[in-house]
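Q&A FORM
Asked by: J.P.
Topic: structure of Orphan protein

PROVIDED:
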Amino acid sequence: MKKLLISPSKMALGEQESQIYQNILKQASDISLNLMAVKVENHPEDFLGWCYELLSASRDRINYDLLEDKQLPTLKKLHDLLISAISFLQLKTLRVAPWPVIAGFIEQHKDLVALDEQLRLAKYIAAIKSQSLKEMIPEDRLAFSGKHSASLDPSSYNFDVEWFASTKNAKGFHQMLSDLPGAFDEALAHIPLEGEVTQEHYQHFMVAYFMAFNGSDEKPTLAPATRLLAMRRPDVFTPIVNSKLDALCAALGITKLNNRDFERYWQDVVEAIHSMPWFKMASAANELEQSLVEIKALLPSFFYYADKSTADNSNYIKLLNKPKSTTSSAGKKTVRRGKESAEILVDRALASDDIPEHIKAKRDSIISEVEKGRSVEETISLMRAIFG
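REPLIED BY: S.T.
REPLY: Here is the structure written out as tokens.
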């Protein structure tokens, strides 16, 4: 372990990496005796590999029984620093890497980042984004804006809507979006669905977005705005999330954005990413790459740290694996749906070619059950079992 801890001092680290290394050492020193007891056989020669190895040693192989309670916050801080460092180092490669390297990295890590699920979200948004927010059913509006809800039936929404940039903590934004979706439509209308998006388009969006909050105690903030922009034009706008902003800004070599830095977002994030070699040369050699090209401004999201637990923490997976309700579960809260939502979700499912006509004839009964909170898939399966 001692050899591992000092090995970065022999690496050619840049100024940012050196500062990160010193911060990590500071936390490691407080639990050095515990770390020394961990056997280390892998000694990477690069700083990224070193961060991964120290994270594995300090999280997966350390003896937690020997740690004092007061040391646990220090260990947590060490893990957070290492995870942020890994994100920074992986994102930093975006500055210089060509398109084949970027596409190859994403394909190599596809299981860790739940790539198939994230692409399903992107495909779903592409199918509904021409519709106004005001016209969308509440579930689709949640999918577009990035907030998970128990009302999102996993048989209809086979993805976690919070991939790319969760907005679950932006409660004021979601209240405004629910109350005045038309005001946000007016803002998004300034961003063309196809073709070039200019700074002038963005500035008009920004003014209209600010206007949506006029007369409200809520203040317009940047992160949820970038989610809306990224879903409308995933080939142009990179969404930001506050918990990962340190790593992104460090990788781009810019001062950290604050939640009102709308002007800087265009200059320091959008324009910076558009100028990168991989972004300019993005082209499709296969079906996967075609999917990535269509959402190329979202690709930095795949370079944040991910491990084997990342995909399992998907809200979609959690809902999918949630125990089915039983008659003994009295008192459990039932998530009811509006009639319009139930009708649209059922009609989408019944449009499938494998649904027989006699089941389609039960549309009203299926809608009634879905309104009560039963999933679309479960209801149709029940109808099949009863009526064949």
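FOLLOW-UP: The longest helix spans residues 72-92.
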